[in-house]
């Protein structure tokens, strides 16, 4: 009979356990590390700094994960589909698109919370999670990248950043390719700031189609530990940043 490993129960004062204690691939919940502990800013910074992230549904306790392997997108490997490149260039030529950073973080995360992941009926961005990430944003560690077309917010994403460790969280789109444009803008900004990779947490075919690849948790954690103490990214987007992307991106 297979038995599940011990699951760490955290109080708000307990430190995060080592990621090596996360459940393995042979278990019912690979990557699950701990329950509880709250979602205070200090807890979130501790967790992300150790390659952990919260993920749970309504009615469940806070659940902490550290997946192995980890899905990451190296900024140099980003793939831009030709249709996206064409649409983006047309919008730029007509001066109809604007990328805004942290203009309306709360609205972005609320839109993301209303967008279920594929294969799921509900959302993992429950009200407590929204509140926690808004507080993290106000503390300067969570950021929104927003696609505005003709003066309307039509897509975007939000991420966590500690130093030069950038963790993608969720995105939404109300117009075709609007979230992909926000991701492309994030790639541009990261290249400008010499950020080499963006965490994507778990494998999906959609992420793989844009160039994301799996990496062992050990290597990913080493990267996070190395770059989280680097000078922080300057969260500002200049239209000139697009030029490097059009020149460097892999096109499909």
3D structure, described in words:
The protein has 252 residues and is of the alpha+beta class. The chain folds into two domains: 8-67, Alpha-Beta Plaits (2-Layer Sandwich); 71-251, Leucyl/phenylalanyl-tRNA-protein transferase, C-terminal domain (Aminopeptidase, 3-Layer(aba) Sandwich). It is built from eight helices and 13 strands. The strands form three sheets. It has a seven-stranded mixed β-sheet, sandwiched between helices. A four-stranded mixed β-sheet has the order 1-2-4-3, covered by helices on one side. The chain has a two-stranded parallel sheet with strand order 6-13. A hairpin with a 2-residue loop joins strand 9 (152-162) and strand 10. The chain is globular. The termini are far apart.
Task: Break the fold down into its secondary structure elements and pairings.
Blueprint: E1 8-10, E2 32-36, H1 41-49, E3 53-54, E4 63-65, E5 70-74, E6 79-80, H2 82-93, E7 97-101, H3 105-113, H4 127-138, E8 142-149, E9 152-162, E10 165-173, H5 178-192, E11 197-201, H6 205-209, E12 213-215, H7 217-227, H8 241-248, E13 250-251
Parallel strand pairs: 1-2, 6-13, 10-11
Antiparallel strand pairs: 2-4, 3-4, 5-11, 5-12, 7-8, 8-9, 9-10
Helix pairs in contact: 3-4, 5-8
Report the biggest beta sheet as strand number plus sense, adding barrel if it closes: 7 strands, mixed
Domains (count)? 2
Q: Tell me how many strands there are.
A: 13
CATH class of the largest domain: Alpha Beta
Enumerate the strands of the largest sheet in spatial order, edge to edge or round the barrel. Answer: 7-8-9-10-11-5-12
Q: What separation lies between the terminal Cα atoms?
A: 48 Å
The CATH superfamily of the largest domain is: Leucyl/phenylalanyl-tRNA-protein transferase, C-terminal domain
Structure classification: alpha+beta
Assembly category = single chain
The SSE string, one letter per element, is EEHEEEEHEHHEEEHEHEHHE
User: Which range best describes the helical content: under 10%, 10-25%, 25-40%, 40-55%, 55-70% or over 70%?
Assistant: 25-40%
- What global shape is seen? globular
**Which CATH-level-2 architecture of the largest domain?**
3-Layer(aba) Sandwich
Poorly predicted runs are: none
And the CATH topology of the largest domain? Answer: Aminopeptidase
Mean pLDDT rating: 93
What is the alpha-carbon Rg in Å?
18 Å
- β-sheet strand percentage: 25-35%
């Amino acid at each position: 009979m297979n038995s599940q490993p011990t699951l760490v129960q955290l109080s708000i004062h307990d430190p995060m356990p080592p990621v090596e204690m996360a459940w393995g691939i042979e278990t019912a919940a690979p990557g699950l590390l701990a329950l509880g502990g709250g979602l205070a800013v200090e807890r979130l910074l501790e967790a992300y700094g150790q390659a952990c992230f919260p993920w749970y549904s309504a009615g469940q306790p806070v659940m902490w994960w550290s997946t192995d392997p980890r899905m990451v997108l190296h900024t140099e490997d980003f793939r831009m589909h030709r249709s996206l490149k064409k649409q983006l260039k047309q919008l730029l030529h007509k001066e109809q698109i604007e990328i805004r950073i942290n203009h309306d973080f709360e609205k972005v995360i609320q839109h993301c919370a209303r967008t279920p992941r594929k294969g799921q009926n509900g959302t993992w961005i429950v009200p407590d999670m929204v509140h926690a990430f808004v507080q993290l944003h106000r503390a300067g560690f969570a950021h929104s990248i927003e696609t505005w077309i003709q003066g309307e917010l039509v897509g975007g994403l939000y991420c966590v950043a500690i130093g030069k460790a950038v963790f993608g969280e969720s995105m939404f789109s109300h117009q075709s390719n609007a979230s992909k444009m926000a991701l492309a803008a994030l790639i541009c900004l990261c290249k400008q700031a010499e950020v080499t990779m963006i965490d994507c947490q778990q494998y999906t075919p959609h992420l793989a189609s844009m160039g994301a690849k799996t990496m062992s948790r050990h290597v990913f954690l080493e990267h996070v530990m190395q770059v989280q103490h680097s000078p922080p990214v300057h969260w500002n987007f200049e239209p000139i940043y697009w030029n490097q992307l059009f020149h460097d991106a892999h096109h499909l």
